[in-house]
## 1
Amino acid sequence: MRTLFFAAPLVMALSATALAQSDRSVVLPPLPSPNLPEGSRPSDYLRAAQGALAAGHAGEAESALEMAQTRILDRSVPLGQTDNPSDNPTIGQIAQARQALAARDRVTCQQLIQAAIASATAQGL
């Protein structure tokens, strides 16, 4: 019984310490944005991502890829069908490029960005 009595304050102290540490969150600075005018097309953001990646600016490339993907996802859909995901193949190519970038595979990322540029350009995006 004594063991339990002495162990309880120790467990409570460790739990309080763990909770205090979990309240501290790490806030990362925003990714650098590509230098493009407002209203640029998704293909412009893809070209900016390609240039940033070639220059070794992975953060800017990631930001440009996110912006291109967001602009392609911004679409009109009939009422009641807003839960249907987009079937645009360019979105998948951009997602794969982002995964390659996260894996630090620059060659594959560049290839996927080039494919996404061709796809977006063919769609007039």
Note: Residues 42-73+87-122 form one domain.
## 2
Amino acid sequence: MEYSPDGPVPLGTAGAIRRALPRLPERFFVIYGDSYLPTDYAAAQRHFDASGLDGLMTVFRNDGQWDASNVEFTGGRLLAYDKKHRTPRMRHIDYGLGLFRRDVFARMPEGAADLATVYQDLLAAGRLDAMEVGERFYEIGSFPGIDELSAFVAAQQRGEKAMSFSKQFFEEAKQILDQIDIGQVEKMAEILRATRDRQGRLFVLGVGGSAANASHAVNDFRKIVGIETYAPTDNVSELTARTNDEGWPTIFESWLRTSRLKADDTILVFSVGGGNREKNVSPNLVAALEYARSVKASILGIVGRDGGHTGKVADACAIIPTVNPTHVTPHAEAFQAVVWHMLVSHPLLKQAETKWESLK
């Protein structure tokens, strides 16, 4: 094995290849270092040789499953490739295996350059071919990715088929269940019971899919637990009027002010990121939480990622563990429902029996 160091200044994925040209033959493969690609490399080489072009990109029908799709590939032709500006027509993804002629990099100027730009330039010049592969790639640049690859290799050794997307998704869900901080969830139940005992109210805040979860949770906490519960996003007229007149960042705060939020009340946040003012992620949640703190209301959260601002200021917070960075949002929003349904079923809180289309 031979190495070609960048030197004191990083050269980028294409600049590093150009620097390595003295060690490379006339035609060569380029493989991403953080990927395991169980595909037919010889077939890719035959396809490249037959094309007579300068480059070949292998693509996989991804549909946003394993990472963000970035390739438009139709009828065996590569029509578009862009990692930054994606379109709904991009159903495929750059698989991570490419083939190139040496001249592609020899005619590049020295210095830093990105492989994505090389692909795009070849595509624009009509010198890039594409081949679709059928087996998914495995990301091995993270511990969850390595665990997933290990399971795949073990299954191969047992003569089993590769794990389907559905099985992987539910395996991730099982991992999340095992990793949720039960202590924090129990503390949430205690705070909610105290809120009800002092006749406080519960306000559920969420944006996007979490706002839909908030509406459902309002019903459950009112009907099953007996807490006076509200969600500002249930009133679209007021929400949009405040957005027009006051701006998005303050809509929840101003709604809570009008609702006369007080120390006996509790805020429950549903969010993927938990709010981050510096990164402009749900700043309306941050403003609402700061106001809640100022009136000494209790704060609870069911959030994803690292918990964001919610995780920092909450009295109790269930952070949905990230077991696959690609699936942070679907898991976070799905487990919001799991956790709140557990809470309304908790012996500390449940007052009314749940029924299924009862006719009695």
Note: The radius of gyration is 26 Å.
## 3
Amino acid sequence: MPRRRGDDHARKKAEPRTRPTINDVARLAHVSKKTVSRVINNSPFVRAATRDRIGAIISEIGFSPDPQARGLAFRRSFLIGLLCDDPLPANVGEMQQSILDALRGTGFELLIRAFNLRDAKFLSEVQTFVEGQRLFGVLLASALPSETGLSKLLRELDIPHAAIIAADRAGAAAASLIAATRLSAP
């Protein structure tokens, strides 16, 4: 049966688009996957010309490292959790934006989770969330009072954490930026 003109277009459109991988970058740059990984992780053991070539390819094809793959390779996640009271405090939007600003370019991502402090399972739910997501660290919205035992739990789990304490929205945004910067610093 002869092909119709639109068949190829329909087939291409139906195929799912795949994300570029580190292997794609390595192949296009004619380097090893390890060299690409070194560039991504800012290793000093890559020549400037090679670093620039790989950086250009990464930008061109839109590659971004898979956070789960990085977590497996480094045996830790690159996830920061923002824990809030439920319902969410009014200043969470400003906190979130400030945290995202602080995390930009660090390789860390943000997860936001609201908990009901009055729930008898509050601490066990926090523990399940932190361990299940393998969080690198936790930021605590000021609405979470210290008397809940949350700080003690996070210390026991050996999870770096910082509280965001501020009197108003502008202060919350500034405190969020500082706390996230400290938490994600190498």
Note: The chain has a mean pLDDT of 79.
## 4
Amino acid sequence: MPITKNDLINDTAISSGKQRETARIVVEQFFNVVKDLLKEGHSLEIRGFGTFSSKKRNPRAGRNLQTGELIPLAAYKNVSFKYSSELKAKIAGFSPKDIKEAVPATAKEQVQARELAETNLP
């Protein structure tokens, strides 16, 4: 079941011990800041959670599926969210350390892990 902004406001008020009106102002102001940053082309990184960013999409030709006619599609901005490894680990039920140990981050670490695995073969 999706959580609504109203649910988020209520949960924020309860967990912070503040009045609901104060929590509403804080939550709405946060969303306004995020919207303004994305509109201006900036990205917002929240460590341990993820990064919100906006990407410009160039104009392109589309097709009307009913008639097959080509139609021009205007340029637009698309919002994306890339979750952090900490958030991914929490959702999956692992610690971030477990994920880092399971998948080496750099190419050098991957080569070292492969060599170590090859030397430990029976």
Note: Residues 1-40 form one domain.
